[in-house]
Amino acid sequence: MGAEFKTDKLDAIVERYKTLEQKVQDPEIIADNKAWAQLCRERSELEPIVEKYEQLKKAKADYADAMEMQKSDDAEMVALAKEECESLSAAIDTLVEELKVMLLPKDPNDGKNAVLEIRPAAGGEEAALFAAELCRMYRMFAERRRWNVEDISINQTELGGIKEAVFGISGKDVFSQLKFESGVHRVQRVPVTETQGRVHTSTVTVAVLPETETVDVEILDKDIRIDTYRSSGAGGQHINKTDSAIRITHFPTGIVVTCQDQRSQTKNKERAMQFLATKLYDYYQGQKDEAYASLRRGQVGTGDRSERIRTYNFPQGRVTDHRIGFTLYSIDEFMNGDLDKMVEALRIADQTRRLEGEEN
Length: 360
Description:
Blueprint: H1 8-23, H2 27-31, H3 33-69, H4 75-102, E1 114-120, H5 124-144, E2 148-156, E3 162-170, H6 174-178, E4 183-189, E5 200-210, E6 224-229, E7 245-250, E8 255-259, H7 265-288, H8 290-300, E9 310-313, E10 318-321, E11 326-328, H9 331-335, H10 340-359
């Protein structure tokens, strides 16, 4: 077995779990639906930890019994006991590592829905075309996860590329699965506009924000201006002939958001206000927490070709994430939304980094 594992925190969690077990059966608390639901959520979050801790305690007790059996005069029993100790030792080490991960501080945004912003950076029309392909990739990934995708603002180019795309994704643990996608995505391939067969390098920026309800951020009427304009699609073709699109300018921060993909002006305004709240949450969080601000700046950077979190090399058929040195040689499947292996590798790398931080 590895180093001694302190269980003080786990013991406290068990006590809290027992308290919650009693409270959720209290008729007075049951009568308060909101309070009861909140306690049930907390209990369900602690339950896997408590169960895993019980497994650890049982494994340790069995290990102690097996160690005691090795004092027997029966050689066959001693051999069996030694074998049992080896097996239990490995099981205990595994349980300890699993519990360490479960005890890591939770990102409060992990359970939230997300807003994705995708914009071409360096590379002109080729970058815009790749931005459109990334939009499709994330939509297909969302479909595989049975998440819902809602367009907020899509601005296309003449050739079908994307000048800017903003869309919301809702479902179970969306932000926790997509938060590592923020940054500069670099593509290397022969563009459709290239006549001499040369490989070009272009970049697209992706920002993933935890969706925030408007009630979470105070937005004063005096601080915003709301403009209406006519929705337009690729090549200036009108989606409709009424001024249903909404642009909201927030004066204190200079943040501007638009929404043109809902059918009515009222729906566009509601969605734009929610998107503004999300952007303001991100902005104010950065103001409050310099470490968070540095992380956000590092995620997107300037969009220059030399800045990248991931490279999509089509001639070699590979996708490489430079943050963790992870490469997949299945670019076609990846672009069709098969991001599972990449998402899992990034999640494990993040857990490992945080565990090392806890131990140092």
